[in-house]
Design brief:
Length: 193
């Protein structure tokens, strides 16, 4: 089953209780073979696990384009009904239309509460992305859809009148495994500044 959302969430790992699991997952993320993805216009470059599939989509409306890049994890086994994924959504204005320089994450959270069954907000924070020396807003939340319990982390970043939204969508039980991949991808993103 493939499902993605570009509204997401993140939670902090309690390393005092989950240290062995965290250490094992960290080692797995470090052993991953990485490839590089670059957009057609070469304005974004990011690493991703080499065995993951990439699905691209582009939407146009009167005021902006919306580039969507979905990185799909491999199906683990025949019983695996959901593919964890990382979505990069790039909103670019057209025709001298200006995008607000910041995203109101409180508004995003309220929309998520209204749209998602079993929504539970975990965290909102400002993070620093070292590879581009910029700060971004981060939210983490849980919700239910199609009988699955999901956990999401989203990063909202505005650069040069473009909005970049990085989203991790996992089953709740798989979040600690995939957050390490998401974080590594984010720390290796390159954007025009």
């Amino acid at each position: 089953m493939f499902f993605y959302s570009w509204f997401g969430h993140n939670s902090l790992i309690d390393t005092t209780k989950e240290l062995p699991f965290f250490t094992v997952n960290k080692a797995l993320a470090q052993e991953t073979i990485w490839s590089n993805y670059t957009t057609d216009d070469s304005t974004l470059s990011i690493i991703y696990p080499a065995e993951w599939e990439i699905v691209e989509d582009k939407k146009n409306d009167e005021n902006q384009t919306n580039d969507i890049i979905v990185f799909l994890s491999p199906i683990a086994n025949p019983e695996d009904l959901f593919q964890e994924n990382i979505v990069l959504n790039i909103l670019k204005p057209k025709n001298n239309f200006t995008i607000n320089e910041s995203i109101n994450t409180q508004d995003v959270v309220q929309k998520l509460v209204n749209q998602n069954q079993g929504f539970r907000f975990d965290n909102i924070s400002t993070i620093h992305i070292d590879s581009i020396n910029k700060t971004a807003e981060s939210i983490t939340y849980n919700f239910e859809n199609a009988g699955f319990l999901f956990k999401t982390k989203q990063i909202f970043l505005t650069i040069n009148n473009n909005i970049y939204i990085f989203s991790l969508l996992t089953e709740q039980k798989e979040f600690d495994k995939y957050i390490l991949i998401f974080d590594k991808m984010l720390t290796n993103v390159h954007l025009p500044i």
